[in-house]
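Box 3.1 A note on notation
Throughout this textbook, protein chains are presented in two layers. The first layer is the amino acid sequence; the second is a C-alpha cell string describing backbone geometry. Keep the layers aligned when reading.
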Amino acid sequence: MVVLVTGGASGIGLATARAFAREGARVVVAGRSRESLDLAVAAVREEGGEAMALPCDVRSEEQVERLVSQTVSAYGRLDIAFNNAGVSLVGSLSEFSAAEWDEVVSTNLTGTFLLMRAEINHMRENGGGVIVNNASNAAHMTLPLLAAYSASKAAVLSLTRAAAREFIVQDIRINAISPGPVDTPMWAHRPDETPEDRRERMAAASPSGRVGTPEEVADMVLWLASPAAAYIAGHDLVVDGAMSS
C-alpha cells in the first residue's frame, strides 16, 4: 500500500502518515519545508513504516505533477492520497486583501484540484484508488473572520462530490473529511493569544467541551480509505463533536 499525504509535516497530516505507517504502508510525506518533512519522515519510520519526504507547494502545477510522478517512480504505484495541505488566514472580509484571498483559495481549492487531477490520472491507469480531501466544518457553518477559508473549503466539498460521481466507475473512491476544532499548529492564533488561550477558546465553542486531536481525525481518514468503506464515495465525514449540528 502506497500512501501520499500532503501537508504531512505536522498536525493532522503527520498523525495520518504515522497511522498509515502503523498499518504497514509506504508513505510519501509532502510539504513546503524540507527540514520539517525530514523530521516527519523520522517520526513515520518510528511507527515501522517506510517513508519518503518530497517537498511540494501544492499551488504549483509543475510541482504537483512532479510529486505524484516521483511517488510512482519510487514505489511503483499510488493507492491512497490524503490531500491535506491547507492554510487559514484570519481577517474581516472588508479588510481582506486580494493577495490574502488568492493565498487561501490557491492553496485550499486549486491545490486540491491539481492534486486530484494528477492522482486520478495515475489511479485510473492502475485499476483504482482512494482519495480523501481535507475540508472543514467551516464549510458547513459560519465562523467569524474566516470567510475566505470557509468559501474555499465549501468549494472543496463540491469538487469532491463532482469527482466522486465521475470516477467511481473507474474504481476511484473520493471522499472528504471535515474536522472541527483540532489542536494543530495550523489553527490561527489571535493577536496576543497563547496556545492555551486558543485551546480554551476552541473548546468553549464546541458542544463537546473539548477540541479534537489529530489522531482522532487520522483514524477517520484511515477508515474512509479502508475496505470497510468500500461502498462510500462522495461523502463528507464531519468530525467536530457536534459543533456544526
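Residues 2-239 form a domain with the Rossmann fold fold (CATH 3.40.50.720). The chain has one domain: 2-239.
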